[in-house]
Design brief:
Elements (H helix, E strand, L loop, with lengths): L2 H19 E4 L5 E4 L2 H24 L6
Antiparallel strand pairs: 1-2
């Protein structure tokens, strides 16, 4: 299987989770809150893991520029 595509998929799912879980409140300062804070943590971890998988795999294959 292509680990870069899997990492990209994990990244995409994490971004969708974070985007759908964000709530914005308007005031003097704009505040971003989440509906379910635990789900936001899971989404951020998925984003980090997905990026790490894609970047490390591409680096190991020599696909990143030198």
């Amino acid at each position: 299987m292509n680990l870069i595509a899997i990492g990209g998929g994990i990244f995409l799912v994490g971004m969708i989770i974070v985007a759908l879980n964000t709530r914005m409140r308007y005031g003097f300062f704009t505040h971003y809150e989440s509906h379910i804070p635990g789900l936001t943590v899971v989404g951020v971890i998925m984003v980090i893991v997905g990026l790490a998988m894609a970047i490390i795999t591409a680096w190991a294959n020599g696909q990143l520029g030198h």
